[in-house]
Amino acid sequence: MSGTEVLSRLLGAHDENLQAIEARYPVSLSVLNGAIRVSGPDEDPVRLAAHLLRELASVAARGHEVLAADVRRAMDALAEGRELKLDALYSEVICTTARGKPIRAKTAGQRAYIRAIRQNDILFAVGPAGTGKTYLAVCEAVSMLKNGQVSRVVLVRPAVEAGESLGYLPGDLREKVEPYVRPLYDAFYELLSPERFARYVEKGIIEIVPLAYMRGRTLNDSFIILDEAQNTTPPQMKMFLTRLGFGSKAVVTGDITQTDLPRGCPSGLQSVRVILQGIEGIGFFDLTDADVVRHEIVQKIVRAYERYEEAQSAGKTPGGEAKR
């Protein structure tokens, strides 16, 4: 790959990557003779920007596109004192889309999450919206399905809004459940194409099941994803976990701050950590707002709600004054 191509990837569309760096740090960036010059009044931000550019250049030299969102996440990592290993992130492909696009972890936390899925028979992943906890579980499930490591993928979701009583809804079982698993469809459409996904569902290779219908089953050679697990009760969680058969793997995802259970009803996702902690083959993984990979404003929203909830717990008003 030529130096011009590497530089083009590094700069981004319309130099947006350089603009993102200049917007964050008090530095000036200029391109001259195929190199980027970093200048500024203070030594520390100049050194920091130069370090970031070297890391990004290493990624670009491997042929990867460098997006402004990637640059901002890298700067967030540096600001929070986290180790910056962009080359390692970009080098590991989880799976590829139906169009051949590689899917990679976008943060160090996401990369560690994928490793945790591979190392445990059952993994509980807890984190705010936009951290990729469900999407990456689907990616790993598709990868294992394609590699013949499992024979089917089972998607499970509690239907809290319908009180787990789906009989009154029109249509067959799939049509009854579809509204509750629609967020998972988008990932499968991207990874398999809608047509292939439909064939897999028809053949039972991919199965969509409401949590209430899991009772009495044993699933062998399967990758099972329980999504929105904060909306399970403790008995439902126990029932789900005891469905695991030989050669199977389960990933349980949820956000304990967004439960839709009736007031006073405990969440099975919250209690399970205390009950199952220390059992070999069972892991717990926490994703944070640092792993949010949606629009950057989502990260700000997550942090704002965390501050608000902390203030509420401390007995303060949202403005910071103590309640009287």
Task: Describe the model.
With 324 residues, the chain is of the alpha/beta class. The protein has three domains: 89 residues, Ribosomal Protein S8, Chain: A, domain 1, CATH 3.30.1370; 191 residues, 3-Layer(aba) Sandwich (Rossmann fold); 30 residues. It is built from twelve helices and ten strands. A hairpin with a 2-residue loop joins strand 1 and strand 2. The longest helix is centred in the middle third of the chain and has 20 residues. The termini are far apart.
Write the layout of secondary structure elements.
Layout: H1 3-11, H2 16-24, E1 28-32, E2 35-39, H3 43-61, H4 68-79, H5 86-91, E3 93-96, E4 102-104, H6 108-119, E5 122-126, H7 133-146, E6 152-157, H8 173-192, H9 194-203, E7 206-210, E8 222-226, H10 234-241, E9 249-254, H11 268-276, E10 282-286, H12 296-313
Parallel strand pairs: 5-9, 5-10, 6-7, 6-8, 8-9
Antiparallel strand pairs: 1-2, 3-4
Helix pairs in contact: 1-3, 2-4, 6-7, 7-8, 8-9, 10-11
The strand order across the widest sheet is 7-6-8-9-5-10
Q: Mind telling me the CATH class of the largest domain?
A: Alpha Beta
CATH architecture of the largest domain: 3-Layer(aba) Sandwich
Mean pLDDT across the residues is 83
Structural class: alpha/beta
Radius of gyration from the alpha-carbon trace, in angstroms: 23 Å
